[in-house]
Structures are given as structure tokens and as C-alpha cells.
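User: I'm preparing a small set of examples for a lab meeting where we compare how different chains pack in three dimensions. I only have the primary sequence for this one, and I'd like the structure in C-alpha cell form so I can line it up with the others. Please keep the answer compact; I'll paste it straight into my notes.
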Amino acid sequence: MTRQGPTVLDQDDLKWIATTSTDLNSILQQISRYSDLARRHKGEYNYIDLLGERVELAAKTAQALFDRVTSKILETTIATSKATPPAPPHSPFTVLPPPVPSASPQLATIRTSPVEEAISKLTAAVAKVTEAGKSTAMAATPRTSNAPIPADIVVKNAEGNRELILFIEDEKEVAELAADMLVDEGYRVIVVHDGVAALKIYERIGKQIALVILDFFLPIMDGDAVFDELRCLNPKINVVLSSGFAEQSKISSMLAQGLRGFIPKPYTVEKLLAQIRSTLDAARQGLH
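Assistant: Understood. Below is the C-alpha cell output for the 288-residue chain.
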């Protein structure tokens, strides 16, 4: 009976690699986006700091992937070498196989080492599981978490019994009025006035946010740019756009990419609440 060699990666390793690879891909997309913004808006905002943060995070994530994979390969190689029986102490002679014909006399047959074989198998496994992880992430409906929200993030009606909404609006009076409307209905609300601040909050507590209401015209980054960044963080994010002057072509493009709805300004409390409720109910039922 042939002895089965040790497995390079177990199921937990594959899941971790798939998740971490997906995270790294999102970080690299953010780096590309911030680089483009830095070129187009020189001097308007310190995008270099944002780029530095993303690059540092990408480096740490890539290093973590490398460390985990190589440690598993080394463990497997050591286990394999220990399990291989030693050669007989006295071999009267050695039989060599006949030479393998080659089109070029300069080409030689190269036998792969156990480490190289493990790397080859690992690469194929990681690619397969990473692709499966991406498909799962795309198909899954975003879930909210009950983890505590950091104290530095202000939540209106923190003890409310309805979903948490991130409201992005640069006009403070409009934002406060709309937030009060939502609070009166039992929603919990976080109000921010620019896209960069909103992205930082979503990076920290995105799993707890059920819906984002996004104004189109914002300082630093317009709504379509913020929407792109949010989708990098969560491809199935629930975002409703709110604007009075957004170009129809841009709205259509955002809808094609997964925007859940559009509320033209000025809006009434009835229209706002109806759009929010229908979006959240549809997401819960998996209709998006």
C-alpha cells in the first residue's frame, strides 16, 4: 500500500488564504483609485497620506500571505523527509534509466523537488479557492454585526431598534434634518460630510452598516468616486444616491454597477423613508 503524504493546506488555511487574497485585491484597487485622484486633484487634498496607509496595509497583507504559505510548505517538506525510508546501507550497484530523447541536446530533463511540487499544487489550490471566495462574496447579501461601535464614531439614536444608516451629505442643515427624520423612525444614523471620512468609517464598521445614503456632489471626492471605493470594500453594499443635479448618464452607470436607488432632491420624509425601507427589505429578501 502506498503511504499517503501529508496535506499541504487544510480547509482553514484555504479559507484564510481566499479571504486575505480578496482583501489584498480590494486594497490594491484602492491604491489605484487614490493614485488617480492624486494626479487629478493636485494640492486639493493630501492623498499621499491615504496612499501611504493603503500601501503599508497591502505590504502587511502580502507578507502575511507569504508567511502562512511558506510555513506550511516547510512543515510539509520536513514531514515528508522524515517519513521517507532511508536508502539501504549497502548498494552493490546502481541502475540508471536510459537517457530521454530531446529535440535539443542542450535541454535536460529536470525533476521537480518536493518543495517545487508543493508550491505548484499550492498555487493551483490558492487560485481555485480565491476565485471561489470572490464568487461567494459577490453572491452573499451583506450582513450586519452587533459588535460595539468605537466611541469616536458618533451615532445618532445609538439605542434605536432599527438598522444603522451611514448618511453622506456635505450640506450640514440638510444632513441634520434628514438624520432627525430617520431617528424619529427608530433608525440609527451616522452623519458625515465628505467621502473620505465616510470611507474611513466604512472600513472600520462596514459590517454593521445596513445602508448608505450618498450625496452626489461632495468635497474632495464626488459621489461616483465614493461609490466605487465603497464597492471595493463590499461589492454587495446597499447604496442609495441622493442629488438634485447629477448627470443622468452617471446615475445610469452607477445603477448598472449596483446602485440600489435614487432619491431626487428636494425630497419629502415620505419619499426618503419609503426608499430606505424598500431597499433594506429587498436586500434582506435577496432581491438585489
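A couple of notes for your slides: Residues 47-83 form the longest helix (37 residues). Residues 103 and 109 are 12 Å apart (CA to CA).

User: Perfect, thanks.
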